[in-house]
């Protein structure tokens, strides 16, 4: 019986008062999870549960799938929501990877402190993931495939069916007369995972019936080895990383090639970056770390860039061009900033050590911008005025952040750069700029 297994796993990880969120695609795996979660809700009525269906818009059936998921949730007595996402489908972008990334970004919005996100991967999915990692030539981390539980945003991602075979999942659905949707793309063997599912794994299991269990054990052994390696290097890595998240180039130079490659992988893993292969690690070292001292090197990866600045390596997420973004302040009303930069507010509730300015005159409008072009400022602690570009250099602001710091403008004059300095002509104690960066992704 699947429910006792499901219930025991949830009770192992779920904390009282925290929400359980189900990623509901509508396929048989998540459909079974929905049924199991509804039973768990009946046994634990105080537990808040929510099903989230992500609408990718890739199929002509996408609207129907969303309606079906909503109806199943309604019939099960569970709350549900549909998240619509837009995919960036460029010529060099993997549809699978982009859909996965946007799906998890959408799901993360519903995860608060201590919440659980349930996904429907099972034992056969683990086998496919292992074989895909093997095809890519992955090391222990890649071959460790998917863990049963992992941190996710402010909460945890849990795969309660990971040790259950696909056959048992389908049997459960049929025994309980559950209906589900079939994504037509699942039969398209141009996708590597579908090719494995349709042709390779069935032949392997026919020849060796226990191979999926064996693969699962190998994945766990790889995970154990990776965990041990990380444990042995964790203290060394902590000493290399500064308060700004950058990793010391000088410290990396003192390590062996094997150690520094693992340390770079561990550092990137803190940003949830897809693990670079051996070729990419070589490029990081030769083209970024070992570039000329006066260079501004960068290496672009699928999720962002690795850059060097003042003898440190930094991970930089993909950024939107927000140069032309601007908006006016209304006193004591937070303003949402673009591209995961949080929110900012101009308030007359002034604190002792806040970022304080004089009050605006009647003819002055106060607004926020990100375009530093042509701006000259005179920080109150400096003897002379300088172009903002030069001031950013003197304050040690990395190049990729120089169009990410909110510029507080009084009419066309810079009053201050949030978190950096106040201009001498606008110094005062009447209002305070409060920049809350906690909403950054």
Description:
InterPro entries: Lysidine-tRNA-synth_C, Rossmann-like_a/b/a_fold, TilS/TtcA_N, tRNA_Ile_lys_synt, tRNA_Ile_lys_synt_N, tRNA_Ile_lys_synt_subst-bd. It is found in: Cytoplasm. It comes from Vibrio albus. The protein is built from 13 helices and 21 strands. With 441 residues, the protein is of the alpha+beta class. The protein folds into 3 domains: 2-209, HUPs (Rossmann fold); 241-317, Chorismate Mutase Domain, subunit A; 326-436, no CATH class. The strands form 5 sheets. A 6-stranded mixed sheet has the order 3-2-1-4-6-5, sandwiched between helices. Strands 11-15-18-19-20 form a 5-stranded antiparallel sheet, with no helix packed on it. It has a 4-stranded antiparallel sheet with strand order 7-10-9-8. Helix 2 (28-43) packs across helix 7, helix 5 (123-136) packs across helix 8 (192-207) and helix 5 crosses helix 9. It is globular and about 80 Å long. The model has no long low-confidence stretch (mean pLDDT 93).
């Amino acid at each position: 019986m699947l429910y006792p297994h499901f219930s025991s796993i949830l009770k192992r990880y779920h904390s009282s008062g925290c929400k359980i969120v189900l990623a509901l695609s509508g396929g048989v795996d998540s459909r079974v999870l929905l049924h199991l979660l509804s039973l768990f809700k009946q046994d634990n009525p105080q537990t808040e549960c929510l099903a989230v269906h992500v609408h990718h818009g890739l199929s002509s059936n996408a609207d129907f799938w969303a309606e079906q998921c909503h109806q199943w949730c309604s019939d099960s007595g569970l709350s549900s929501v549909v998240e619509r996402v837009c995919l960036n489908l460029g010529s060099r972008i993997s549809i699978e990877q982009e859909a996965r990334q946007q799906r998890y970004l959408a799901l993360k919005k519903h995860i608060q402190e201590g919440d659980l996100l349930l996904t429907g991967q099972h034992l056969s999915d683990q086998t496919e993931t292992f074989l895909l990692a093997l095809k890519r030539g992955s090391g222990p981390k890649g071959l460790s495939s998917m863990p049963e539980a992992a941190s996710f945003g402010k909460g945890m991602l849990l795969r309660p069916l990971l040790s259950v075979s696909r056959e048992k999942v389908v049997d459960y659905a049929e025994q309980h007369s559950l209906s589900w949707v079939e994504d037509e793309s699942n039969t398209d063997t141009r996708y590597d995972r579908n090719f494995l599912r349709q042709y390779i794994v069935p032949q392997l299991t026919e020849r060796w019936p226990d191979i999926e269990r064996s693969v699962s054990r190998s994945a766990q052994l790889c995970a154990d080895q990776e965990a041990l390696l990380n444990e042995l290097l964790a203290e060394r890595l902590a000493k290399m990383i500064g308060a700004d998240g950058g990793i010391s180039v000088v410290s990396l130079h003192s390590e062996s090639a094997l150690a520094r490659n693992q340390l770079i992988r561990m550092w990137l893993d803190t940003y949830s970056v897809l693990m670079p292969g051996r070729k990419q690690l070589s490029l990081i070292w030769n083209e970024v770390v070992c570039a000329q001292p006066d260079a501004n090197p960068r290496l672009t990866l699928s999720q962002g860039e690795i850059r060097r600045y003042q003898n440190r390596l930094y991970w930089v997420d993909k950024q939107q061009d927000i140069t032309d973004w601007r908006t006016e302040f209304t006193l004591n009303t937070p303003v949402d900033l673009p591209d995961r930069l949080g929110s900012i507010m101009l308030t007359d509730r002034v604190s002792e050590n806040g970022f304080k300015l004089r009050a605006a005159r009647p003819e002055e409008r106060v607004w926020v911008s990100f375009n530093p072009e042509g701006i000259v400022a005179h920080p109150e602690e400096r003897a002379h005025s300088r172009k903002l570009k030069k001031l950013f250099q003197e304050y040690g602001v990395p190049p990729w952040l120089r169009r990410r710091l909110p510029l507080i403008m009084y009419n066309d004059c810079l009053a201050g750069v949030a978190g950096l300095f106040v201009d001498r002509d606008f110094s005062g104690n009447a209002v305070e700029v409060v920049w809350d960066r906690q909403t950054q992704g």
